[in-house]
Structure formats: structure tokens, C-alpha cells
């Protein structure tokens, strides 16, 4: 999770929402990583989890990723939860919940849906306070910047 947190910082440094993800094999070796980049890549699907899944699939030369664990700093959205099911990831470790759009615990509970043909085990809380603080800090700064922009515009 430490590497995922560093990747979240990398995303924030370029103005992306600070989410980082790593995928490890059964032995705990990192085989892929990703950070949020939908803005910089002009790709609405370039969430940290999707970027990491794509890299892992290439590394394993398989679109299915059995025996792997995804570590992610913030609870995945609906799109990413669906991708986890399709990739056959075994395990998901989430640092912090995303109360508005989280699709694992907070809102949709996609991984627990009875209609799925694959089960992903998941857990919450590893480095959770640090991940939540990164998000809070990022959006606090972003809101302050927006206020300043509006203020400057009014003064023109």
C-alpha cells in the first residue's frame, strides 16, 4: 500500500485526483501499478485501478489475473469494480472508503452482488487515514483555487 500511496502523490502532482493502485502476484511481488490519469490522458477510463489492470494483463499476457491482489488507496467506483470482476482478481485491499461513489462498501456493493460469476475478497483500512487525508487535502486545495479564480474573475 505504501507504493500505492506514493503513486497517489504522483497523480496529485500533475493535478489528478490522488488515487494510486498496485497489483501484486501471489508471492507479494508488484507486477503492475497505476495512478489516476483521466485528465492527462484524455481518457475517462484511466482510473488508477484500470491503468494497473491493463499493465498487469500485459505483464501476465492474460486478461485474467488469478492469484493477484489489487491494493488501492481509495474505494473503487462502479467501472473499476466491474473490471475487477472481469479480470478475476482474487483480492482487493482498499485503504479508505469513498462515501459518494465507492462501489465496494459505500454505495453499490458490486463485489457482493449475487449475479456475479466471480468473487473477489476485499478488506478495508490498510493506511486508511493517510489515504483519506490525501484526498481531503487535495480537494481542500482545489476548492481554494476555485474560490481564488472566481474572486479574480469578479475583480476584473
Give the termini separation: 46 Å
Tally of separate helices: 4
Average predicted local confidence, pLDDT: 96
Low-confidence stretches: none
- Biggest sheet, spatial arrangement of strands: 2-1-3-4-5
| Strand residues, percent | 15-25%
- Tell me the total number of β-strands: 5
**Biggest β-sheet: count, sense, barrel?**
5 strands, mixed
Task: Provide the gyration radius in Å.
Answer: 16 Å
How does the helix and strand content classify structurally? alpha/beta
Shape: elongated
- Helix content range: 40-55%
The H/E string reads: HEEHEHEEH
Structure notes:
The protein has helices spanning 2-13, 48-60, 78-87, 128-155; strands spanning 20-24, 30-35, 69-74, 91-96, 121-124. The chain has 156 residues and is of the alpha/beta class. The chain has a 5-stranded mixed sheet with strand order 2-1-3-4-5. Helix 3 (78-87) links the parallel strand 3 and strand 4. Helix 2 (48-60) packs parallel to helix 3. The termini are far apart.
